[in-house]
Amino acid sequence: MKISHRALLGATVSLTLAGAALAETTITVATVNNGDMVRMQGLMDDFNAKHPDIKVEWVTLEENVLRQNVTTDIATGGGQYDVITIGTYEVPIWGKQGWLTSLNDLPAEYDVDDLLPAIRGGLTVDGNLYAAPFYGESSMVMYRKDLMEAAGLTMPDAPTWADIEKAAAAMTNRDAEINGVCLRGKAGWGENMAFLTAMSNSFGARWFDENWNPQFDQPEWKATLDFYLNLMNNYGPAGASNNGFNENLTLFQQGKCGMWIDATVAASFVTGKDSTVADKVGFALAPDNGLGKRGNWLWAWSLAIPSSSDAQDAAKTFIDWATNKDYLALVASKEGWANVPPGTRTSLYSNEEYAKVPFAKMTLDSINSADPTNPTVKPVPYVGVQFVAIPEFQGLGTTVGEIFSAALAGQKTADQALAEAQAAVTDEMKAAGYIQ
Amino acid sequence: MARAASPRRKFLTTLAAWAVALVIFFPVLWMILTSFKTEASAVAMPPEFLSADWTFENYETVWSRSDYPRFFWNSVVISVGSTLLGLAIAIPAAWAMAFVPGKRTKDLLMWMLSTKMMPAVAVMIPLYLVFQRTGLFDTKLGLVLALMLMNLPIIIWMLYTYFKEIPGEILEAARMDGASLWNEIVYVLTPMALPGIASTMLLNIILAWNEAFWTIVLTTTKAAPLSAFIASFSAPQGLFYAKLSAASAMAILPILILGWFSQKQLVRGLTFGAVK
Amino acid sequence: MSTQSTRLAARLMVAPSVFVLFIWMIVPLAMTLYFSFRFYRLLTPERSGWVGLTHYTWFLNSPDFWLALFNTLALVGGVLVITVILGVLIALLIDQPVKGQGMLRILVIAPFFVMPPVAASIWENLFMHPQNGLFSAIARGFGAQPILFLENYPLMSVIGIVSWEWLPFATLIFLTALQSLSSEQLEAAEMDGASPLNRFRYIILPHLTRAITVVILIQTIFLLGIFGEIFTTTQGGPGSASTTLPYMIFKQAIVAKDIGRAAAGGIIAVILANIVAYFLMRGIGRHLDN
User: Fold this and answer.
1) Is the pTM of this model over 0.80?
2) Nearest Cα to B140, choosing from B207, B224, B201, B84?
3) Test mutation, B12, B79, B121, chain C, max C CBs within 10 A
4) What is the ipTM of this complex?
5) The domain A138-297+377-431: what is its CATH number?
6) Three-state SS at C49
């Protein structure tokens, strides 16, 4: 009697479970509208075939808007999203807050050890992997081989800033609308400050000393900003204080830049179908000044699960699908190797087919030469190459970015800009309680 | 002001008027032209007017990449819904203020307008929290309510100015004849106020259709309207002007057509209220 | 005209609007006021507490604050001047007997239908861009250096874009106002030998007073809160050359995620808006009476 009861109960439970497994789970995936993510949405047939019980709803937004919505949701425990796309800056901060679900229990086939160590390190807090990298990037020099040749110069694989200046001077031809070098000038922690912070590392500068005292009054920052302003004023495009990644990409594609130092991801665009100079582009490591650090950054757009999501398992299944080796193979089979999301897995770079992609090696070398846990020449209390992984940095970076952008527009001298930056950052760090 | 004019003068003014109108319209025209160009052609220098590579590619891309009908439908529901609900609340209020004015009516009107003066960004988090806790977040009902309340002061205010144009004597006469308040509103007032109501409605549908802050902040998937659709095409990596133009054209086309068909109504209604 | 019962009925009819608007105003306002005295940063929830007037003094002491205040008023004033003057002129022109008036109207009001972020993006990228914009092409065509709109004239550029967005609204209202002007009056004045300028000054302009009041009031309310166009084009820069008060608040709320500070900024903006509204009502409010 007892036994049969239990058997009955067991049967009911297993029936219920079977029913639950068949029921459709809907997950909401928030993502930026970058090319690789849009491509993923086009490949959803594969996911749907493998996981018919999971329905994916997309929220695709421009980067700034997405970041705003996702941050508000996660900080207020909204629970609107099951998978979010965030970057190397957010992951350590949000992970520490307990806002993200640990991904340590991804299946063995996922082969987490295959992830590039630098990228994986940036997404790990206290031994917990909090986000799976979708694509990774560093920054490097993209240059016009034809213009360099015409100027009688060759670009070293690992140039110094002096090499860059020399090349910029030689390639600039205002009458032909060719600017020797295009760099970011648009204000923002993820725009000009990403570039300038990474650049300052190679000049031996740092945002803060070991006690969180701002360092904009130090000679290293002065050297950085002077060099940048001089380079841009002499060899940069007009109106550069409004140029971000996308504006410079357009200029380079139109053949109006001799060099462009920016994200490695741009390589597939400048050699792609919209580019008028696709077959003339060479790549080199980001420049240095012989101090042991290069001016290149490290970033990974990654997929993470908010703790507030109520569909954790389905979300994990999706992340596994979108970032595992099979996905890379899937993209390669449908869209070609050049369109595979770069910069996440060691195995991709040992693939012979992928090695034929012109920018593959330089991307890997750039990523490997960035070290977010030890980004500067002098010691610092923070992690992050082109950012400082503290919650206050978005505000700080944007404020300083505006000041430097004004200097580029000619409204301020370098000294004024640095003094203002020092004062503004000191105030904010006091208000936030880092320093007295 | 239809006066007899010499043919020469008419020709000149026609020429001038069309020139001005085309200048104002040109950015929209340029956007529509851009939407039919390839991305490279869209930023070509010198600009390509007739020699561009014309293509439907952008529309195909935009259509295949996102669920336009759903965004479109959400926009329709939200803008029409918020406007109708707003009118339902505003008509009695505007009527009362116009025909039974008290000492404080003007102050009340100004107070209503002043509720619109809080910058949206400053109340973003408070409203976000309210919507989240009440379950209105990412629902069409929530957006209908938000946009209705946002535009309600404008609706009341426009209706008030229209209603004030209606001579009070007519109402009094109706009342003398023993018409009830209800009959008075339905049979006397409404027909006279219809143009004003119609233009208020159109103007508010346009305002609601174009609202691009709250509609993005307070939605994710289920209630997201065309403003979110547009935000998924602006500023990605790489060239995007042609695709953004195509997405924009798809977003403004419905409202442009509505405006086209109703512009006479719109103009007539506006005359009625705004002008004395 | 008003008996006791109609008065009561009128109160009942106004009540729903007043009630919902009061809730709509007071809940966010009370929360904002509360937050404005609190330490509340989205990304550091572990820190919280009362901070007194710190957020308010931060705004008032910020080097950008007075500039932002000036920019806000300049933006509102600039757009009002441009849209009212151009609006009246264009309305006068289109009101003449011209061919295809209906089509003309549609062309003129079309900008009103474009979503503001799109309008800003189009202007920035397809017109004002220093290398690829149409204006730069025109400048080059004349052998001149392209004007760097967003770098050298950021606030003026934003005013220009916003004016383009609001010009149709103003024109439309003026146009309809003109069409109700009796032609006899004008003809009589013409017979009496009044110059076109005098006819405009003494007949047309007084007739337009109320329409102008409507345009100024409605536009002011919308323009005081503008930040989307600035975000899309200049991001308040270079430096803070085109930062307005709403944009300053936007930076605190959305970039720095400092809700407390943004709330204080919001309260300051409300006070400012009410001051503007007060002067506006004193200046032009009487034109609203019959």
Assistant:
1) yes
2) B224
3) B121
4) 0.86
5) 3.40.190.10
6) strand
